[in-house]
């Protein structure tokens, strides 16, 4: 499967919003994604196939040296081919150089996503009871810390 990881631009937004609606009960809208384009703390990336179609995408917000992963989603037909891993690897390599930690929330029942994050060295750091709606469910907080040598 051939694709490139590229920064999100405006042309990607309708496809990403459609992917959000397929994957999540409270999806990000086109307006929310567009705001991210102009948010200097946000870095959204896309796995783009040769024909311009989107196989997956991910979003990160950085606040000083803290990284918050907003979302990661891959088209159902493209799953289990390493697309999410390629997206997450970008953030982990950035984090290893620039961040104290990367963190995210995930539904307690989302075992594929939890397995993905564990593979990338994220550890379960706590629960947010009732964090998600539709259906109501606890969030697992998963965090990967990066240890930097003192200068
Ligand atoms: N069951 C168990 N483990 C899984 C899995 C599944 N269905 N899907 C991924 N994993 C784990 C495996 O360890 C896998 O490594 P392996 O294939 O060598 O066994 C590893 O994650 C990497 O998988 P990868 O192919 O990179 O993931 P993907 O491109 O299929 O995307 C998701 C994974 C979770 C992003 C995808 O299933 C998805 O979009 N789900 C719906 C949206 C979602 O839940 N996003 C997360 C919100 S927090």
Strand-helix topology:
Elements: E1 3-7, H1 13-23, H2 30-37, E2 42-49, E3 54-63, E4 66-74, H3 83-98, E5 101-107, H4 111-119, E6 123-132, E7 137-145
Parallel strand pairs: 4-5
Antiparallel strand pairs: 1-2, 2-3, 3-4, 5-7, 6-7
The structure holds coenzyme A.
Question: From the 3D coordinates, which CATH architecture would you assign?
Answer: 3-Layer(aba) Sandwich
Order of helices and strands: EHHEEEHEHEE
Q: Compute the gyration radius: what is it?
A: 15 Å
- In whole angstroms, how far apart are the ends? 41 Å
Low-confidence stretches: none
Helix content: 25-40%
What is the domain tally?
1
What is the overall shape? Answer: globular
Lateral strand order in the biggest sheet = 1-2-3-4-5-7-6
Pairing-aware structural class of the strands and helices? alpha+beta
Q: What small molecules accompany the polymer chains?
A: coenzyme A
CATH superfamily (homologous) name: Gcn5-related N-acetyltransferase (GNAT)
What is the average per-residue confidence, as pLDDT, rounded to a whole number?
Answer: 96
Number of helices: 4
Strand elements, count: 7
Largest sheet: 7 strands, mixed
The CATH class is identified as Alpha Beta
Strand content: 35-45%
- Any idea of the CATH topology? Aminopeptidase
Label this structure with key terms:
Aminopeptidase, globular, binds coenzyme A, alpha+beta, 151 residues, single chain, 7-stranded mixed beta sheet
Would you write up a description of this structure?
This protein is of the alpha+beta class and 151 residues long. The protein has a single domain (3-145), classed as Aminopeptidase. It is built from four helices and seven strands; from the N terminus they run βααβββαβαββ. Strands 1-2-3-4-5-7-6 form a seven-stranded mixed beta sheet, sandwiched between helices. Strand 6 and strand 7 form a beta hairpin. The mean pLDDT is 96. The structure holds coenzyme A. Coenzyme A binds at residues 23, 72-74, 79-85, 106, 110, 112-113, 115-116, 119.
